[in-house]
Design goal:
The complex is a heterodimer of chains A (275) and B (323). Chain A has one domain: MetI-like fold, CATH 1.10.3720.10. Helices cover 77% and strands 0% of the residues of chain A. In chain A, helix 3 crosses helix 13. The radius of gyration of chain A is 24 Å and the shape is globular. The two termini of chain A are 46 Å apart. The model of chain A has no long low-confidence stretch (mean pLDDT 88). Chain B contains 14 helices and no strands. Chain B is globular. The chains are: A mainly alpha (275), B mainly alpha (323).
Chain lengths: 275, 323
């Protein structure tokens, strides 16, 4: 074999191995979730005899995942809707309208992007406690909105900057108010960016555990991710049910990735090549 | 270009807009931007940004100031009293917090590895190794999973009789107590974090490669440059901004998105060996009921992030200039 071909295999084999290592943990978990407890104790690595739904049903109903799932869906949907509304309004104003202080506002928003939640979590929890927002759905929705709004405004502003001013001027001449321009022009034109940033925000909120633990801690308010953390203790002797619960929590995210991979990777690379 | 058609260079309304759109050229359009606009039009931008400004100022900027202020007051009996730097003194005397800082040092040491792996993989994908399309999708997919899910799955794989030790056993090694040995646990958790997030850096690198001038690489190859030479003299200088972006975002990720893994996999243990500042803050605020001490730790973490960000920007800018 020539040296070039050896070098080629030295690259290809580790990359394929890494791809396997990337997929394996989820395959292993799905396999475990299809086993009975007895099968798991005997041999955790062998392939499950058949696809079995018992463990998924147990995790869904008796482990309370159904309730956690609903909590997550409600909070994430509300937070994403609020983020898109507030973020696109601000993005429109900051990119297309001239007003005193717009540059300062944009820079303030960029600065907020670099404040991690861990740095503000203590005073935030205290403020939420004082205003009665702690352990409520609106409280968690607001906390998520505040956390991901700087990123959303940044992305919407940079997207709307690319829309020619002539389009807006023409809409104004046709008799639209500024708000009419937002509703009839900017919202429809912003659809690709809204889709991308909406999906990313949905992922961020769905996957979060720290903010949910802090802002909405009580048992009946648990989001799905907080629920998964408590599942371990409950089902330490029943790993197959535990694995099924983990998969249920991962499923919506896997579906999003399957359908919107392009939007997701586009969103995470914003800001990396220009500046 | 990231999304859709409009170019996404960031600028605000005050820059880059053509000036001199006077009465003569566009008398009607002037209504939108001129000075004699009706009050409602002049107020509209403020109405549109108001919700965002209120939320960001009230729930992000104000808490930051409040927290710094809070770190100079006492906990418990001395609640609300000014105590100067007492909390910071307590903090740096606490072996757990010192361990957390030591682990930050470990993260800084591991950072080049966490950047080099996705960088090398992206290079190979860009150079079209067989199966490059598939790799891109497969490598990125763990990045969409919650740390909680990843941690829960790896708890099973890294158990004493789990997959990792079984594989080691096949080649006559191990078993390793991945999460129970204080000398090993932190490296294990960082390894899992890198497994889960290297796809993120990978797609950023690939977006950077898309902006590279492919003819430069072809020219270098024709001139007889070897692959390492091409990487060193063409790819790295061309990607300096992307590399800088990945360094900063990877470090931020290491410092601020490991909470889920720590919470699920180790709970800070064994013997406090996997504490990071973010976990310390959560424990002090949530479990030990010492919010002022936690605020001091928050302020230190914010300082670390500022220093890391500025340092890396400075170092990379200098090395970029030399090339």
């Amino acid at each position: 074999m020539s040296r070039a071909r050896i070098a080629r295999w030295l690259i290809v084999i580790p990359m394929a191995a890494l791809a396997l290592a990337t997929v394996y943990p989820l395959v292993f978990t799905a396999n475990v979730a299809s086993k009975t407890r007895h099968e798991y104790v005997l041999d955790r690595f062998s392939a499950a005899e058949s696809l079995r739904w018992d463990n998924f049903e147990a995790a869904w109903s008796s482990a309370g995942m159904a309730r956690y799932f609903l909590n997550s869906v409600v909070v994430v949907a509300a937070a994403v809707a609020l983020l898109l509304l507030v973020g696109s309004m601000a993005g429109f104003a900051l990119s297309q309208l001239r007003f005193r202080g717009s540059r300062a506002l944009f820079l303030g928003c960029l600065a907020a992007l670099f404040i991690p939640f861990q740095v503000i979590m203590v005073p935030l929890a205290r403020t939420m406690g004082q205003t009665g927002l702690i352990d409520t759905y609106p409280g968690l929705v607001l906390a998520y909105t505040a956390q991901f709004l700087p990123f959303t405004v940044f992305l919407m502003t940079s997207y709307y900057t690319g829309i020619p001013a002539e389009i807006i001027d023409a809409a104004r001449i046709d008799g639209n108010s500024v708000y009419g321009v937002y509703r009839r022009i900017m919202l429809p034109l912003g659809r690709p960016a809204l889709l991308s940033v909406g999906i990313l925000n949905a992922l961020f909120c769905w996957n979060d555990v720290l903010i949910a633990l802090l802002v909405m801690p009580s048992a009946e308010h648990r989001t799905l991710m907080v629920g998964v953390t408590s599942l371990r203790g409950q089902y330490s002797a029943d790993i197959p049910t535990f694995a099924a619960g983990v998969l249920i929590a991962a499923l919506p995210v896997l579906l999003l990735y399957l359908f919107f991979q392009r939007q997701i990777t586009a969103g995470v690379t914003v800001g990396s090549t220009k500046g | 270009m990231p999304i859709g058609s409009p170019p996404s260079s960031v600028r605000t309304a005050t820059v880059g807009r053509p000036e001199g759109r006077g009465d003569a050229q566009a008398p009607k359009a002037r209504k939108l931007r001129g000075s004699r606009r009706p009050l409602a039009d002049r107020l509209a931008p403020y109405v549109l940004v108001a919700p965002a400004v209120l939320i960001i100022a009230g729930l992000r900027l104000y808490p930051l100031a409040l927290g710094v202020n809070f770190s100079f007051t006492g906990d418990g009996d001395r609640n609300g009293q000014a105590v100067g730097f007492d909390n910071y003194a307590t903090l740096f005397d606490d072996p757990l917090f010192r361990q957390a800082l030591q682990n930050v040092g470990l993260l800084v040491l591991l950072l080049p590895v966490a950047v080099a792996i996705p960088g090398a993989l992206a290079t190979f994908i860009y150079l079209r190794v067989p199966g490059h399309r598939l790799y891109r999708s497969v490598y990125f997919f763990p990045a969409v999973l919650s740390p909680v899910i990843v941690g829960a799955i790896f708890n099973l794989l890294l158990a004493y009789d789990g997959t990792a030790n079984t594989v080691l056993g096949l080649v006559g090694l191990g078993p390793v107590d991945w999460l129970g040995d204080p000398d090993v646990a932190m490296v294990t958790v960082v390894g899992v974090h890198v497994w889960a997030t290297f796809g993120m850096a990978l797609v950023v690198f690939l977006a950077g490669f898309a902006t590279l001038d492919a003819s430069l690489i072809d020219a270098a190859r024709i001139d007889g440059a070897s692959l390492p030479q091409v990487i060193r003299h063409v790819i790295v200088p061309g990607l300096s901004r992307t590399i800088q972006f990945v360094f900063v975002t990877t470090m931020i990720g290491l410092l601020t998105s490991m909470f889920g893994l720590l919470y699920v996999m180790t709970g800070g243990g064994p013997e406090g060996s996997t504490y990071l500042p973010e976990y310390y803050i959560w424990v002090q605020a949530g479990q030990m009921n010492r919010p002022a001490l936690a605020s001091a730790a928050s302020t230190v973490l914010f300082g670390i992030m500022l220093v890391v960000g500025l340092l890396q920007a400075a170092v990379l800018r200098r090395s970029g200039r030399e090339d």
